[in-house]
User: What shape does this take?
Amino acid sequence: MSDISVSELAELRSGPDPVVVLDVREQDEYDDAHVPGVLHIPISVLMDRMNEVPRGEPVYVICAVGGRSAQVVDYLNRSGSEIDAINVAGGTLAWQQASLPTESGAQ
Assistant: This one.
């Protein structure tokens, strides 16, 4: 499985090309704090909303600490969905610990 660190992701996001970050945490976790500009699809409804996940470009999957996102990455990469999923190691907690910007509130 492919992983990326939060610092590597932050560097990618600072570049000129758009970067898709998929937050799979549940709504209450997302509302507390999230990476700005993420696509929020809770893991509990991901199967019903698969059509919203972009194809043809990397999708960086984030959760709280990296466990659920790793499961989603494994599923997406094995599903034949043509989604290039990459796990964000350490998740939102690592993002916050690195003093990277977050937002709060609903999408």
